[in-house]
Amino acid sequence: MLVTARRSSRMGTILGALTGSERLNYEGQPMRLYALMVCVLVGLVLPAGAQQDPVESVSNGMIADALRDVGGRFSLEEDHYSIELKNRTLRLYRLDGGSRLLIKASVKGQASLPLLNRYNEKVAVTTRAVRYEKQGVVLEAGLDCRLGVTQASVGKFVTQFVGDVVGFETFLAKNQGKDFDEPKVEPKVVKQGEKKKVPLAVKPETDDKEFVITFPTNDDKWETAWKIVWDIETAKQATDQGYKFGASGRSLLFKIKQAYFKPGQKAEWIQVLEDAHPQEFYVPYYFRGTRFFDLRDVGGYVKLSAKEGGATSQLMGAAKQVIAELRDTGTAYKYGSITRRSEELTLFANFQAGNYTYMVEYGFRDDGGIVFRHSPTGYNFFPDFHAAHMHGSFWRVGMKLGPEDNNETNQVFVVSLPPEAKDQGDGGKLNIQEVTRESFHDWKAKEFTRIRVTNPNYSVVPATKDRPAFPISYDLVTYPQGIARHERFKDEKFSHHDFWITRHDAPEKMYVNLGNYFFTPKGGLNPKLQPLDKQNVVLWHSSAGLHVPRSEDGIIGGNSTANGQATIYWTTFELRPRNLFLKTPIYRTLP
């Protein structure tokens, strides 16, 4: 079973398999429980004439006897055996009541993620190399004792692993400095004719990370425009800003640092976003207790090829981790012969987490809308049709709405349709409730729930005799496939609500810690939640999709890229503009 280095670290935030002191060491950390895969280990059978019968779980006594047999020095620590054997230090974990064994060895020196991926994909059979934030490079192997083991085979498992460690160290020494990052073969994509560059006006000396695009594109009489500042930041850069991702060089946060919209050639630039990014890809399985925090623990954004873009597209930045693509998004409006097709400037990147890989997109539309998309693809972790699991993307959307000198004051509202006929009446009014404190809210299907951010001090639509001026606004509108609620583990409280709202200067900056920020250890509401005070806010929103394995995933012949991949399916939400125009955007009355 082939998985890449970071994905192999995923083979194991499987807390359901742990009990007692085992859980104390592992809860909240990435680990690899190879008990979940069938380990084919050569020579783990008894010699002819042996009297031991195979068992399906190992006791501490059997482990101790096996270690004595192979001549190792060992001690039983709180949750593992510490072993000295052939000048190597090993850690052996007895998991799930002895039905699974996990063995680890730390390896000195540094190794790049592409180098570890190459080992896992091309060399490893019963082992996997993992790079942990704190432990460094670790080689691991697992044994599923439910297949039948003996004292002798446990000893053989340990001694063979020592040989694997030596082989891994040799592999690293021979391949240090080699470039495994760039794909040697360009991806096979559908031919789309002559490729054109996107008509962007890139600010000089910004590495393509600040640009302007106007709509309709290639038109001197353009009517709307976007100014975008983006970046992909490393774990260390994020940690330096107060996030908690360690100090590695993994590319972790694909950010829109600022986004400004111009609703007319003579209009002001209106800022909309201030630091928006997906902050976690959480993948809990409803199968053997497996779960993974892919962004925090596993992967990173990777290089793309120009061929992966559409007919009008280009790579952005020296790192080549982002593609800008101009897309036709279909009919914007139509009545009779009056119609127009709309355009979107899409920035997309690819976050690789071992066998899974995530497409992340920001779509900046010609009418001022912003679309946030996430989709998993890659090959399945388990070759099992019962291995259903959730792919959740947890987004931070920093709002700062208004022109440059008038964007510090914002208000937030929950907007909903009254769910009962008796409450709807004939006036057509919605329930619009201002949010005045940091709080959480849930999407309700019958109410079409949305979160609205307004700037009460800035209007494009003026007042009339019978109504006030309309402040500019953006509605967060989501397209849920279902509502993801994860309640098996104590650290999943961040998934218990669909929308969280905090001040821009809230002390908590991590989505996965929002449950602890909003609630006390006893479950009560945190009394220190702050009033919003009409300041800029952060909207936190999760979008999730349920992956139910099927033959189209390419798993009938085994889970690998040789057999197939799970095709893309999107989880999506958007920021929809309100009252930024005096008429329909880019309206064309002539056919």
Structural notes for this entry:
The chain is mainly beta. It has 2 domains: 5-175, Yope Regulator, Chain: A; 201-409 and 455-578, Beta-galactosidase, Chain A, domain 5 (Distorted Sandwich), CATH 2.70.98. It has 9 helices and 27 strands. It has helices spanning 5-10, 21-26, 60-69, 113-122, 151-175, 235-240, 294-298, 421-424, 514-518; strands at 73-76, 81-85, 88-95, 100-106, 127-132, 136-144, 201-202, 210-215, 224-234, 251-262, 270-284, 291-293, 300-301, 313-316, 322-335, 338-353, 356-365, 370-378, 389-403, 411-416, 431-435, 439-441, 450-461, 470-478, 499-503, 537-547, 571-578. Strands 13, 14, 15, 16, 17, 18, 20, 21, 23, 24 and 27 form an 11-stranded antiparallel beta sheet that branches. β16 (338-353) and β17 (356-365) form a beta hairpin. It is elongated, with a radius of gyration of 27 Å.
